[in-house]
Amino acid sequence: MANKTILIKAKPALGFNFDYLLCIPDSVYNKTKVFLTVEVNNPYIELVSCSPDELIKDACSYLKWDSIEGLINKLGFPYLMPLFPRYPGFYTNALSRSVLLSDDEGIRRLDLQLIKMTENATTILKEMGINLEEKFILNGTSASGAFSNRFAVMHPELLKCVISGGQSYAIMPLKEYNGFKLTYPIGIYDLKEITGIDFKSEEYFALPQFIYEGDQDDANDTAKSVECMSSEQASILYSLFGDLPKSARLKNQIKLFQELGYDNIDMRVYEGFGHKLQVDDLVKFINNIVTENGLQK
Description:
alpha/beta; disordered C terminus
């Protein structure tokens, strides 16, 4: 049985307004326990105003990319990718502040829409004879890494583990620090105000996370983009971690997270790497979470 990818059309009545892709590796039927793995799409900047067909083509191409196809095959888990369009001023694929505050109900709560997609996929896969574990894995790199990192502070109880790569910073699971109010997406100061969600600290600090960056990836610095954060928020980042290239800031953030005792968060800066997936380490991280003594839990 060959790997196959199916397109699931938007179902607003079920709570999601956009299509999604579901890639099913042939090896999934050999697994004793299966975890749905999710990664938000990250269309290229020139696809800002793309058509649904272009979004599908872009996402399918990504899923067939050697690194991602290798990741899917090594894990052997179904892989869900929503087809969120990217609009000027609304960085949907990064779950930006403007998206959460948007008056457009179509994009306003993409976190909740993603949850509904996972529920729908669970039903579809069950009908195919594939029974999923209750929690799902959330992966992301670049903008989708920001999405996974931010989704984790909202819904940690739904996740088995989280991977967030190629970011400029990691969200602080704090409301305030060192005299600064850490508003979303710097921190969670106003998380309840803009989402209605109470931060679930016990679940969050029990959630295994892998956050990584390459030290040659400093050009991709979202702190310098008004689409990603305000100048005031960027100034807070610089005050806390230094007005430095983003990989150096992340190294300082790693030190702080270690000092604060965030043992559930494995943060790394890879020397000599740019905007690159670390597939082998991602597979190792996930397998360490879902397996014990080489056997799936």
